[in-house]
Design brief:
The chain is an alpha+beta fold. The protein is built from 2 helices and 9 strands. The structure holds zinc ion (ZN).
């Protein structure tokens, strides 16, 4: 029977709940060494007091731990509810965020439209050049792009331009040999 009990010894370095006479309360004891097949030396993780625990003693606390974990298996139902509530809050927050960003997007779009109309008013459409990457453009040129339509150059470097189209500002190449 000692053979079967020996298997009940927890491995070294395993923490097990035991009563500590020094702390006068339930503590985790770390198994330091196996003294025999049925006994191990364990140390209170709080006060450091070591004690010899027999496999029977540990079986008790281990079965207690087992009962404890059985009790815990009931919990998930609770946490599922909490989780669901958290998920709901999260999705509501995400919806709100999407609403806010959609509103912001609409505002930005309206703001951009205003800028685009201003450019159209200032630059005009009297002289519109067709876009081509080999052509050369300068700031405030009006261009016609085959895909993006009427645009106005807002920025120009020797090889790049930025063009405000109705749909937004796009970087384009120019002066390409
Ligand atoms: Zn202790």
């Amino acid at each position: 029977m000692t053979q079967t009990h020996s298997s009940a010894l927890p491995p070294v370095a395993r923490s097990i709940p035991l009563y500590c006479t020094n702390c006068e309360s339930e503590r985790f004891f770390k198994v330091i060494a196996h003294i025999s097949n049925v006994a191990a030396k364990a140390k209170c993780e709080v006060c450091g007091r070591s004690k010899t625990v027999r496999s029977g003693e540990m079986e008790d606390s281990m079965s207690e731990a087992g009962a404890d974990s059985k009790a815990k298996t009931k919990k998930p139902r609770n946490t599922d509810g909490l989780k669901a509530a958290a998920e709901k809050r999260k999705s509501q927050a995400a919806e709100k965020k999407a609403e806010v960003s959609a509103k912001k997007e609409a505002e930005q779009k309206a703001e951009y439209n205003k800028q685009y109309e201003n450019l159209r008013g200032q630059i005009g459409t009297g002289k519109v050049q067709p876009y081509g990457m080999k052509n050369s453009f300068s700031v405030a040129d009006a261009i016609q792009h085959p895909k993006y339509g009427l645009g106005f150059v807002t920025m120009a470097t020797p090889d790049r331009i930025e063009v405000a189209f109705e749909t937004g500002v796009l970087p384009l190449v120019h002066n390409r040999a």
